[in-house]
Design goal:
Length: 392
């Protein structure tokens, strides 16, 4: 309950009341923990009161807190994550000799410099870490490799990776992901696959980030068969991708070529219980409509509605367009009439396409009846002025 109150005060920047709540915790016999400290420090730093956050850490004993390594790590991680790494370094130097540091302490500093691509700063922090008698762990090596990759120093990153075992550290998933990301950044997909296969060969379990990087790189260079194979391996390992990840796989597949591969990803994702986003459904509908795949188009539309998504003007346009492309004019008229009943006026391009096909088949009366229904909707709809004229 206290954490909820502290978060609410921090979001609204009512920092004057934060200390009152902490005093109330102490009086009620509720001991604050590291999560409490994270909430307070993150609120202060997020509210651009960095100096107050540092001073608060220095006054921890007033609130029954102990200035130990864990509490210091919480503050350093928060400062570094919000790009105040210089302040974090200053606090680290101030606490030297008062608190025994560990690898997490230095990894918080190294991590921010690595993401900024500051190789010299990473080296300096690494020397301090080794000087304090601490050995770099897998997270440290992963950050170093990531930093070198940001500077396109891929050969140096490979050298660090190969020397890890000599320094008594076996590469884990985080390190392999950093290596794969580096080769993705330079467009070397073959090396991405080599490190992925090497990772599997040494029984290092790939995670969602691994598959995201590898499959995304393969789709970018249009190696669809390899991407589908890795996608099968991901599902076979028991990893259920989230909605955003599935959308990121379907989107490039709906840009080039027939929709066959996108439908495979869609069906397999639904088969393992993945939730499909509305954006992914619309991408599939656009592609299926363009190629006139009516049976699959209507099936995907039904799945979309069963998932709780309602059809809008854009969806109806795609359905009518696909039915027109396949010559199913009767079904196209039914869908158009459903859209009109729901208050959605079709786009002029789709309506003209359907009208033209009806006139070419001498169905003048049907085209005229449809014209009257569309006209009634447009006359009752508000008009909006845009750069190219009035629109309904």
């Amino acid at each position: 309950m206290y954490h909820i109150i502290l978060r609410a005060l921090g979001r609204r920047r009512f920092f004057n009341f934060v200390e009152e709540i902490l005093v109330g915790m102490r009086n009620d016999g509720v001991n604050p923990d590291n999560e409490t400290l994270l909430i307070v420090i993150d609120s202060l730093v997020g509210g651009r009161r960095v100096s107050e956050a540092v001073r608060f850490f220095e006054r921890l004993e007033e609130f029954n807190w102990v200035q130990d390594c864990e509490s210091l790590n919480v503050v350093l991680c928060c400062l570094s994550r919000r790009c105040h790494v210089r302040v974090a370094e200053s606090l680290l130097d101030k606490m030297r000799g008062k608190v025994a540091f560990d690898s997490v302490t230095y990894n918080a500093i190294i991590g921010r410099w690595a993401r900024l691509g500051r190789v010299d700063e990473v080296k300096r922090s690494l020397k301090l870490m080794i000087g304090d008698g601490l050995s770099p762990d897998c997270l440290t090596f992963g950050l170093i490799i990531e930093c070198l990759g940001c500077n396109r120093r891929i050969d140096d990153a490979v050298s660090v990776f190969e020397r890890m075992e000599e320094m008594g550290c076996v590469a884990d998933t985080n390190v392999y992901n950093a290596m794969i990301s580096n080769f993705v950044s330079v467009g070397d997909v073959d090396e991405c696959l080599r490190y992925y296969k090497c990772m599997v060969g040494v029984n290092c379990v790939p995670d969602v980030g691994t598959y995201h990087r590898v499959i995304g790189a393969l789709l970018k260079v249009r190696r669809v068969a390899d991407a589908l194979e890795i996608f099968d391996e991901m599902l076979g390992s028991g990893i259920c991708p989230n909605t955003g990840l599935i959308t990121s796989f379907i989107e490039p597949l709906c840009i080039y070529g027939p929709p066959h591969a996108a439908i495979i990803v869609y069906k397999k994702a639904r088969g393992v219980g993945c939730e499909i986003s509305l954006k992914a459904y619309k991408l599939l509908l656009i592609r299926l409509a363009r190629f006139g795949k009516c049976k699959m188009l209507l099936e995907v539309w039904k799945h979309m509605q069963d998932s709780g998504y309602s059809s809008d003007k854009e969806v109806y346009d795609h359905i009518v367009d696909g039915l027109c492309n396949a010559g199913q004019l009767d079904n196209a008229i039914r869908v158009m009439e459903e859209a009109l009943r729901n208050g959605f006026c079709p786009s002029r391009i789709v309506y003209k396409k359907l009208r033209k096909k009806l006139l070419n088949k001498n169905e003048v009366e049907t085209a005229y009846n449809l014209f009257k229904k569309v006209k009634n909707i447009r006359e009752g709809a508000p008009r909006v002025w845009r750069a190219n004229g009035w629109h309904f």
